[in-house]
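In this notation, each integer encodes one residue's backbone shape. One such record reads:

___
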Amino acid sequence: MTGLISGMAVATHWAAVFLVTQFFTTVQEAIGGDGCFWGFAGFAALGWLFVFFFVGETKGKTLEELHQRYGSKKNPA
């Protein structure tokens, strides 16, 4: 399962890199350099807020605690 999630994270990352590279010039021409900077900064801030509020802290937790918290039906062993 970890491999699947890691693959999804990498694919999402590269999709975002592609979209930023593809549309940067178009957005910059449409709203200017400052607007482009603030637009991308706004998306980064929204992403940070999502992670802060919806992604749980796992530091210092055992695998059993994580399975219990996130409702895994499988045996962690």
